Amino acid sequence: MNICPLCNGLRERIFFCSHCGTDLEDHGKITDYFDDYSPYMEIDTMKKVDGYPMTLKHHECVHLFYCPQCRIEEVRFIKE
């Protein structure tokens, strides 16, 4: 069984904005933003419809990060 260390609070990762270098804020799984019920759906099922090919994210959780300085969003793949 693979679990995301960020989703489960096991680890914290710091990423920096590719434009300004500011620490990015983790806003969780990208699939949580699909609709009101997405955060409650089965994770493996949601991975099939998140828009990223399964070959790119084998045992990875796709997270949305936000730069408060630039106000841009970046997607990062987190190893499970």
Q: Estimate what percentage of residues fall within beta strands.
A: 25-35%
Low-confidence segments, given as residue ranges, are: none
User: What's the number of extended β-strand segments?
Assistant: 3
Helical segment count: 1
**Order of neighbouring strands in the sheet with most strands:** 1-2-3
Kindly state the mean pLDDT as a whole number? Answer: 90
- Globally, the shape reads globular
Topology as a string of helices (H) and strands (E): EHEE
Tally of individual domains: 1
Major sheet characteristics: 3 strands, antiparallel
Distance between the termini: 9 Å
Helical residue percent band: under 10%
Model description:
The model has no long low-confidence stretch (mean pLDDT 90). With 80 residues, the protein is mainly beta. The relative contact order is 0.28. It has a three-stranded antiparallel sheet, with no helix packed on it. It starts with 24 loop residues before the first strand and ends with a strand. The chain contains one helix and three strands, in the order βαββ. The radius of gyration is 13 Å and the shape is globular. It has one domain (1-80). The protein has one helix spanning 43-47; strands at 25-29, 60-67, 72-79. This is Zinc ribbon domain-containing protein.
